[in-house]
Amino acid sequence: MGIDLFSDALFWGLTLSFFGKVILGATVINVHAHIIKERRIDMDVLKEMKRERALGIFAVFLILLGYFLELSYFNYLPF
Questions:
Q1: Which residues neighbour 15 within 8 Å (Cβ) at sequence distance 6 or greater?
Q2: Please, which of 2, 20, 36, 46 could form a disulfide with 62 given CB 3.0 to 4.6 Å?
Q3: Angle at 25 between CA 8 and CA 69, to 5 degrees
Q4: pLDDT of the residue at 1
Q5: How far apart are the first and last CA of the chain?
Q6: 29 — phi, psi (to 5°)?
Q7: Kindly report the CA angle at 15 between 12 and 18, in degrees rounded to 5?
Q8: pLDDT by residue (tens digit) across 44-65?
Q9: What whole-number distance in Å separates Cα of residue 57 and Cα of residue 63?
């Protein structure tokens, strides 16, 4: 009757999708704030942008993984 969090695809799909969206939003806000603060793009800003690009890619991966978990929960996947 309880919820099995380790095998509940919907729970994990929603959770990973949520975290991916939050990380992606935070990286976009952070890079814009850094550019506004610096008022120019120098090596410091470029370094920060590279780090945030990696976080953004990870966030997109979480969103995709969450999407496929949600699809599997609703039996929309053919396998």
A1: 66
A2: 20
A3: 20
A4: 47
A5: 27
A6: -65, -45
A7: 145
A8: 878 888 888 888 888 889 988 9
A9: 10
